[in-house]
Amino acid sequence: MIPERLKALRAEMEKRGINVYLVPTADFHESEYVGEHFKARKFITGFTGSAGTAVITMTEAGLWTDGRYFVQAERQLEGSTVTLFRMAEEGVPTVNEYIEQTLPEGGCLGFDGRVVNGNLGQKLEEIAAKKNGSLYVTEDLIDIIWEDRPALSKEPAFLLEEKYSGKSTADKLTEVRARMAEDGANFFILTSLYDIAWLLNVRGGDISHVPVVLSYLILTEDECIWFVQEEALNDDLRAYLAENKITTKPYDAIYDYVPEIPDDACVLMNRSTVNYRICNSLNKEIKIIDKHNPTEIMKAVKNKTEVDNTRAAHIKDGVAFTKFMYWLKTNIGKIPMTEISASDYLADRRKEQEGFIDLSFDTICAYGANAAMMHYAATPETDTELKPEGFLLVDSGGHYYEGTTDITRTMALGPITDEMKLHFTTVCRSNLNLANARFLHGCIGLNLDILCRGPLWDMGIDYKCGTGHGVGYLLNVHEGPNGFRWRSLPNRNENGVLEEGMITTDEPGVYLEGKYGIRTENELVCHKGEKNEYGQFMYFENITYAPIDLDAIDPEEMTGREKKMLNDYHKMVYETLSPYMTAEENEWLKKYTRAI
């Protein structure tokens, strides 16, 4: 199937004189996850992971993805004629290096200008110029060969009331206009779906598990124009928009509007999220201020209402997950279970919670060696039976009106080896070290990552991903600019200063291919602590409430301080969740939150 699709694409490339064609994992807004309509890279390679880039020449096809997906990609690309390029591995060229190597002198590089951001598009321009070549960016060639392509999503949008958002749209617009004035900008082009949803206090359903609305927004000193599909709006939302002096135009009308922005304008935008076609349609005389959207930091720093609500969401989510853990641990080996049936049981517990809207991402329920693939997704073909032995890793979360959750627990289903227990305990220690950090304001995730990764590095072990990411409020589960990572990566926006109100995950792990995977993940809220002659100290509040499986803990591998941190955490879990559990569940919970 994939070889036939590649043949059809190459035929279209040949018609247009294109030598190299780029297919990223992107929609028109640089969203991390994309709707079914936009899964062109999956269509042309067969790789289903959420991150990856395909490059097709007339004789070769390559897929670039990161360490989370190496095992999965290797399996899915088998027999496809697509070569896996393991990103960041020694000797592996980057996408841009490969394009430069394979683009012939005077050759043509093609891509859909709407799914490549302005900064990347400029780099590709430079590569083509080096080869005295050209770009072909006006057509989506995948669309030509994808006969049964899903239609563009037009799910209904809904208003997020102020009791959840904590701030009115009018106040948010005023704040953004003030930031524009500081920069001397009189136009702001906003294409990030997360930022638009936050700014307008609207949510939707145009990306699976990401409650956003396909749209663009332009803000001036006296106008706010929302380019949105009319089908997404209802009468209540239209009245709300009118009340806030927000004008609507058709979704694609952005491409007619932008070229009409006057030459003497000063436009604020982030070229790393605004697509190449929009960037290139601006008149060349216009002054561009290329920087992060002011909305990004504004939505990352949660207000008190959002923090309080998110804490409440985590209590609901903790109840759901702990009921699932109780069911799993007490029934394993007694009733039939598989990865999918266990995942479905957990989803049903979440759906029982008041204010539940959706899962925040596709649940990763991975047994045994499957958990070594960080983003494994069980299918009917791979659905593995759960047995009363080994580890089950479950990474899951929910969207509630009160916020978004993301939790991972690894659970021993029966006997485990001493090595497994050692690795599990070390991951737990790593998680606790970061959660209990005290640090000066001004620190970024790079400064603190070693607290988490250190115990694993001491053993000569690492995990090929970041330690943690920001979490949106009823938005994307991965949000910048906060995050924990040991090194700065140019394509990752995670170097923001850790500010009060930011919510970040803490999720170290061990992944041994062919054996097992372990991850323990909690969410942390950043708070201000003591301020003294040394500066403003900061600390984290742990807002994830679920037991860390004591069956897999070796207390001998923990210091007294680490045992106290775990005991304190479990005491908080029991006190928080016990009012919502049955007598039998509480008896079990008391055992699994006991002091060690």
Explain what the structure shows.
The mean pLDDT is 97. The protein is 35% helix and 21% strand. α12 links the parallel β13 (266-269) and β14. α14 (304-331) packs across α15 (339-351) and α16 (418-435) packs antiparallel against α17 (445-457). It starts with a helix and ends with a helix. The longest helix has 28 residues, at 304-331. The strands form eight sheets. Strands 4-3-2-1-5-6 form a six-stranded mixed sheet, with helices on both faces. Strands 12-11-10-8-13-14 form a six-stranded mixed sheet. It has three domains: 2-145, Creatinase/prolidase N-terminal domain (Creatine Amidinohydrolase, Chain A, domain 1), CATH 3.40.350.10; 158-299, Creatine Amidinohydrolase, Chain A, domain 1, CATH 3.40.350.10; 306-592, Creatine Amidinohydrolase (Alpha-Beta Complex). The protein has 19 helices and 28 strands. It is globular, with a radius of gyration of 25 Å. The protein has 596 residues and is of the alpha+beta class.
Shape annotation: globular
Helix content: 25-40%
Q: The CATH topology of the largest domain, please?
A: Creatine Amidinohydrolase
- Give the neighbour order of strands across the main sheet: 4-3-2-1-5-6
> Roughly how many Å is the radius of gyration?
25 Å
* CATH top-level class of the largest domain: Alpha Beta
Q: CATH H level of the largest domain: which superfamily?
A: Creatinase/methionine aminopeptidase superfamily
Uncertain residue ranges? none
Number of strands: 28
What is the strand and helix layout of this fold?
Elements: H1 2-16, E1 20-24, H2 40-45, E2 53-57, E3 61-65, H3 70-76, E4 83-86, H4 95-102, E5 108-110, H5 118-130, E6 134-136, H6 141-145, E7 158-159, H7 162-165, H8 169-183, E8 187-190, H9 193-200, E9 202-203, E10 215-220, E11 224-228, H10 235-243, E12 246-249, H11 254-257, E13 266-269, H12 276-281, E14 287-290, H13 294-300, H14 304-331, H15 339-351, E15 356-359, E16 364-367, E17 391-396, E18 398-400, E19 403-404, E20 407-412, H16 418-435, E21 438-440, H17 445-457, E22 468-470, E23 479-484, E24 503-506, E25 509-512, E26 516-519, E27 522-532, E28 535-542, H18 560-577, H19 583-592
Helix pairs in contact: 14-15, 16-17
